[in-house]
Amino acid sequence: MWQLFLSGGPVMYPLLFCSILVLAIAIERLWYFLSQRGDMDEIRRIVFRLMEKNAPLEAIQYLQKQNQPVARMFQAALLHFGKDRAQIEVTLREAGEAEIRKMERGLGLLNVIITAAPLLGLLGTVTGIISSLNVLSALQGVASPAQLSGGIAEALVTTAFGLIIAIPSLFLLHGLNVAIDKKIHLLNQMGKEFMDNYENRGE
């Protein structure tokens, strides 16, 4: 395997770095989403009940123990409990946007790698062909297959490694985007329900 890696030439090292970055992003995002698990229906039920009782401090204390984006969003809004609807809506929106930024962390870099890996592979292909042509030129057009194999291997291996990195990364990015879109939809829904409950509290 190491010989195969070395046969790809110097372009294999940035490709290796890209593969390490993809693996790190995948592990970090998986850990983030797994750590955010929780019963959001229970959070909503408890918080809304405390809001109806005009007990924002109790709700905040409960939310501080929950590791959920919606819990942090509710907590930010409850810090302004009693103020007008417009200010609560702004606070909810800002807190929601902050949570979305956390969810999307690393996706920009992943997108860059998806584009860069095949291009690096193409660069390796070009340098490998140039290497083969240099062998032919040096030997005035007469070369054995063994003499040409180095450049051909460099051309093919880098292309393959670039695609091996980019294709799984593309599926990973799609999966993360789908998961984030679902969570954004849920945050929007929870925000609307929070505002409805806030307006109707004490009735």
Write the layout of secondary structure elements.
Blueprint: H1 2-7, H2 12-35, H3 40-52, H4 56-63, H5 69-78, H6 85-103, H7 107-138, H8 145-200
Helix pairs in contact: 2-7, 2-8, 3-4, 3-8, 4-5, 5-6, 5-8, 6-8, 7-8
Principal-axis shape:
rod-shaped
Distance between the termini: 71 Å
Major sheet attributes: none
The tally of beta strands, per DSSP, is 0
Q: Rg from C-alpha positions?
A: 27 Å
Q: Poorly predicted ranges (pLDDT <50, ≥5 residues)?
A: none
Q: What is the H/E order? A: HHHHHHHH
Structural class by helix and strand composition = mainly alpha
**Overall number of domains:** 1
H/I helix tally: 8
Q: What's the average pLDDT?
A: 85
Q: Strand portion, in percent?
A: under 5%
Bin the helical content.
over 70%
Task: For the structure shown, list the relevant keywords.
rod-shaped, 203 residues, 8 helices, mainly alpha
Could you walk me through the main structural features you see in this protein, from its secondary elements to its overall organization?
The chain has one domain (10-117, 166-200). The chain starts with a helix and ends with a helix. It has 8 helices and no strands. The chain is mostly helical.
Write a concise synopsis of the structure shown.
With 203 residues, the protein is mostly helical.
